[in-house]
Design a protein that fits this description.
It is a single chain. With about 400 residues, this protein is mainly alpha-helical. Helix content is about 60%, strand content about 5%. A hairpin with a 2-residue loop joins strand 1 and strand 2. The radius of gyration is 25 Å and the shape is elongated.
Length: about 400
C-alpha cells in the first residue's frame, strides 16, 4: 500500500483500539497527512488533542502533543498548556520543538515562536540560533540577538544551564548588527555575570590547552566579546594567569582556534561520500548494539537484526509476571518498532509493509504502520519518550 492507503487503513481500524492508542495514532497520523492529505491534517491533529489520554494524564502525552503540534500546525502551540516544569527536561523540550519545526518546514513560524510565541523561560536558544542563521535581514538579526539576551537573563541562574555559550557565539557572529553602545552594554552585562559567579575547578581541554578553572575556560570561550571593552580585557587578563597563558597560544581565543582548525581541514583530502559520521546515545550496551544494528540495516537493507532487538524489548514489556504498565505509545519496544518501520519505509519502500505481521502486538503494529507511512513520505524521525512502569520484583534474601 502507498502512504495514503496505509493511513486510510489505520483510520478505518481506529475504532477497535483503546482511547490512548487512538489518541497516539491520531496525533501521528496528522503528521503524515501533512504530505498525503494536507487539508485534513489540522482536523486530525485537533481530534487527537481533544481525546482524553487514558490512564494518568502523565507527561508523555503532554510531550507528544506539543511535538506533533510543532510538526503539523505550530500556531496551535499557544493554545496548549506546556507540561509541568521539569527542570532540564523542560528546557530540552523547547529545543526539540525548535528542531521539529525546522525539520518540517515551519521556518517562518519558528522565528515568530522564538520572538513572540513562547514565554522567555521556554524559548529554545537553539531556535534563536537557527533563525538568526537563516535570515539575512540585519534588523531581524538584531531582534533575535536581543531576544537571546533576554532568554539568557531569565535562565542564567538555572543549574547546569549552558545557554550562555550560545549567546557568546551569536554575539561573535552577529554582534555588529547592534549599535556599538548597545552591544558594549550587553557584553558588560555578560562579563559581569560571569565574574560574579564563583570560580570552580574543571578538567577540560580546548584544542591543545588544558583548563583547571571554569572562569578561565569561559573567558577564553568569550574572549572575542571583550574586544569591545579593551580596558576591562586587560584587567581580566591580569587576574587570570591561566587565561593569559591560553591566549599566548590562541590570541583571539576560540576564534583563533577555529581559524587553525579550518586551515588544517583545508589541507585534508575530500571526505569519502560513502562514509558517514553519527552520534549515538543510550543508557546500556544493548542500546548501542541496537543503534549499530539500525545503521547496518540502512546500509545492507536487511532489517532482520533491529527487528530482533525490538522483539526482545517487547518480550520485556509484555512479561506476564512483571509487565510494563505504561501506555503502549510509550513502551520502549514500541519506540523501536516505530523507528525501524519508518526507516524501512524510507529505504525499502512499500515492500516493507509485509513485515508488519512480524509485530506480535496489534497496538504496536498500528503505530508502526503509521510510522511506515511517515517513512514512505520521507518525514524525519522524531524523538521518543519511553516509560517503564513495572511492579517491584521480590527481593532475593
Amino acid at each position: 500500500m502507498s502512504a495514503a492507503e496505509l493511513i486510510e487503513d489505520a483510520l478505518t481500524q481506529l475504532k477497535w483500539f483503546s482511547p490512548d492508542v487512538q489518541k497516539a495514532a491520531l496525533l501521528r497520523i496528522a503528521r503524515v497527512q501533512t504530505v498525503t492529505s494536507p487539508a485534513e491534517a489540522r482536523e486530525t491533529l485537533e481530534k487527537g488533542l481533544a481525546m482524553p489520554p487514558g490512564m494518568d494524564a502523565h507527561k508523555g502525552f503532554a510531550h507528544l502533543s506539543r511535538v506533533m503540534i510543532a510538526a503539523v500546525h505550530p500556531e496551535l502551540l499557544a493554545t496548549v498548556p506546556p507540561p509541568a516544569h521539569q527542570g532540564a527536561g523542560f528546557s530540552h523540550l523547547g529545543h526539540e520543538l525548535a528542531r521539529v519545526m525546522k525539520d518540517h518546514g515551519h521556518l517562518s513560524y519558528l522565528r515568530k515562536y522564538v520572538l513572540q510565541g513562547a514565554p522567555l523561560s521556554e524559548v529554545p536558544m537553539s531556535g534563536i540560533q537557527s533563525s538568526i542563521r537563516d535570515t539575512g535581514d540585519p534588523e531581524e538579526q538584531g531582534l533575535l540577538l536581543r531576544r537571546a539576551l533576554a532568554v539568557w537573563r531569565v535562565n542564567r541562574e538555572r543549574p547546569h544551564n549552558r545557554e550562555h555559550l550560545a549567546v557568546y557565539v551569536m554575539f561573535r557572529d552577529y554582534g555588529k548588527v547592534l549599535p556599538h553602545a548597545e552591544a558594549q552594554a550587553a557584553v558588560s552585562e555578560i562579563v559581569d555575570a560571569l565574574l560574579a559567579r564563583a570560580d570552580s575547578p574543571v578538567s577540560g581541554t580546548v584544542g591543545q590547552l588544558v583548563f583547571t578553572s571554569s572562569r578561565s575556560l569561559e573567558l577564553f570561550q568569550m574572549w572575542h566579546l571583550l574586544e569591545l571593552e579593551s580596558e576591562r580585557a586587560d584587567k581580566v587578563l591580569a587576574a587570570n594567569p591561566e587565561l593569559a597563558k591560553a591566549l599566548t597560544r590562541y590570541p583571539k581565543g576560540m576564534e583563533s582556534l577555529q581559524e587553525e582548525v579550518r586551515a588544517k581541514q583545508a589541507k585534508l583530502p575530500p571526505p569519502d561520500a560513502k562514509k558517514r559520521g553519527y552520534i549515538m546515545a543510550g543508557s546500556s550496551q544493548a542500546d548501542f548494539d541496537y543503534g549499530h544494528a539500525l545503521l547496518n540495516a540502512e546500509e545492507t537493507t536487511d532489517f532482520s537484526e533491529p527487528l530482533k532487538y525490538a522483539e526482545a524489548s517487547y518480550r520485556e514489556d509484555s512479561d506476564e509476571k512483571f509487565p510494563n504498565r505504561a501506555l503502549k505509545e510509550f513502551w520502549p519496544s514500541g519506540a523501536k518498532y516505530k523507528s525501524v518501520f519508518r526507516r524501512m519505509g524510507r529505504i525499502l519502500g512499500d515492500s516493507a509493509e509485509q513485515h508488519l505481521d512480524e509485530i506480535p502486538d496489534s497496538d504496536l503494529r498500528l503505530l508502526a504502520q503509521i510510522e511506515l507511512a511517515a517513512g514512505l513520505c520521507g518525514l524525519p524521525e522524531l524523538g521518543s519518550m519511553t516509560q517503564s512502569m513495572r511492579p517491584r520484583r521480590p527481593s532475593m534474601l
